[in-house]
Amino acid sequence: MRYPLATYLRAAAFFTLYGLVKYLPPPIGDVFRFAVLKLFMASIHSWKIKDGVSVWFPEGIRIGRHVTVNEYVFLDGYGGLEIGDHCRVAHGCSFLSEDHVFDDPDTPIWQQPKRAGKIVLEQDVWLGCGVRVLRGVHIGRGCVVGAGAVVTRDLPAFSIAVGVPARIVGTRGTRSAHDAA
């Protein structure tokens, strides 16, 4: 797939500027990362973007208020990524809003199209260390996802989910859910 020249120039400007601030230590690094991301992201209202966060297709990403994105998170805005207010994303998480089609065995995978799907985290979601969220997933308000989980399906509000693939083990606000986590 070919993109217009302006797209390549914008990407070059983003990766150059963001590369200068990506690994700066907090708190000054947080401020510089926010400033660069503010120029390129669709919308960003939180400055707590920690060092080592990788960003692809920033124009497809929206980050709400009072969000913390910790070290070494991967944000992919190709299919769209929306992180609601008051979310916490632990280190090492990945948001993968695209994947490859591989239906035609006679065509190399890299030459086949991509499938994209918007990822949405509603308000007050907490993702533990190393969570992977795949394309098209909608995580409802107040969900908690345990470390290392791979979220392949939507999670209803206030769910507690763990595992690979992630499965719901409880609901926030109930005694049995707290014990299950």
Automatic annotation (TrEMBL):
<dbReference type="InterPro" id="IPR001451">
    <property type="entry name" value="Hexapep"/>
</dbReference>
<dbReference type="InterPro" id="IPR051159">
    <property type="entry name" value="Hexapeptide_acetyltransf"/>
</dbReference>
<keyword id="KW-0012">Acyltransferase</keyword>
<keyword id="KW-0808">Transferase</keyword>
<dbReference type="Pfam" id="PF00132">
    <property type="entry name" value="Hexapep"/>
</dbReference>
<dbReference type="GO" id="GO:0016746">
    <property type="term" value="F:acyltransferase activity"/>
</dbReference>
<dbReference type="InterPro" id="IPR011004">
    <property type="entry name" value="Trimer_LpxA-like_sf"/>
</dbReference>
<protein>
    <submittedName>
        <fullName>Acyltransferase</fullName>
    </submittedName>
</protein>
